[in-house]
Specification:
alpha+beta, single chain
Length: 223
């Protein structure tokens, strides 16, 4: 059973029709874009619904900020069904978040034991890409580690040239979004770069040390 099966037949029929319209370049494409989704024929309505449900589920209460997304829900599912879809997606969002956090804890455990797999890293990287700039700015990678350091600036930027993540030592490619922190420490001004993966382990995983465990052994010893 897919999540799309949990909405009413009429809401499902309208959603499928609007998805087909959007794929063909119709006006419904704007409603999908308001929810951060570009419908593709290869995805199918079930996978497309899974994607929009996440954005809908974050609408805790309608506000001026969420008005565009609420209007998109009405367009995609119909005015009568929109409140029911909104409540369902809020439940789904909480359910998915709970499952994601449980998986994240398991992966962090494997990282700590140096047993993390390529699939673990692929999942982490995909989740890290969903971080908003506001969430990235919440990272505190040096919490308690640098007495006397004075932070001057932190920014979410896109790399103009290749960099290396301060903790994971993984490359930050040109164009890759990341956190740049500039501070003075022991009389020097320095800027450190933190990949979305490193930030995700800090902000979502609440375990910034896990990022260090992803680095080569020699760097872990130095840290």
């Amino acid at each position: 059973m897919r999540y799309l099966d949990e909405i009413s037949p009429s809401a499902r029929a309208q959603f499928v029709a609007q998805g087909q319209s959007a794929i063909a370049g119709g006006a419904a494409a704007e409603a999908f874009r308001a929810l951060g989704v570009e419908p593709l024929p290869a995805l199918g309505p079930e996978d497309t619904f899974d994607k929009v449900a996440g954005a809908i589920g974050q609408i805790i209460r309608p506000t001026d900020e969420t008005a565009g997304r609420v209007a998109a829900v009405v367009t995609l599912f119909g005015e009568d069904e929109a409140p029911h879809v909104l409540r369902l997606c809020q439940d789904l969002f909480e359910e998915i978040e709970t499952l994601a956090m449980a998986r994240l804890r398991r992966i962090i455990g494997r990282i700590s034991d140096h047993r993390a797999t390529a699939a673990d890293l692929a999942w982490l990287l995909a989740e890290a890409e969903t971080l908003t700039d506001e969430m990235v700015l919440m990272a505190n990678p040096f919490d308690g580690d640098q007495d006397g350091a004075v932070e001057l600036r932190r920014q979410v930027v896109r790399a103009r040239k290749p960099w290396t993540c301060h903790w994971t030592r993984r490359p930050i490619a040109v164009g890759e979004r990341h956190l740049a922190i500039t501070e003075t420490y022991e009389g020097r001004m320095l800027t450190t770069r933190h990949s979305l993966l490193s930030v995700y382990l800090d902000v979502a995983g609440e375990d910034p040390a896990a990022a260090i465990e992803l680095a080569p052994a020699e760097h872990r010893r130095a840290a």
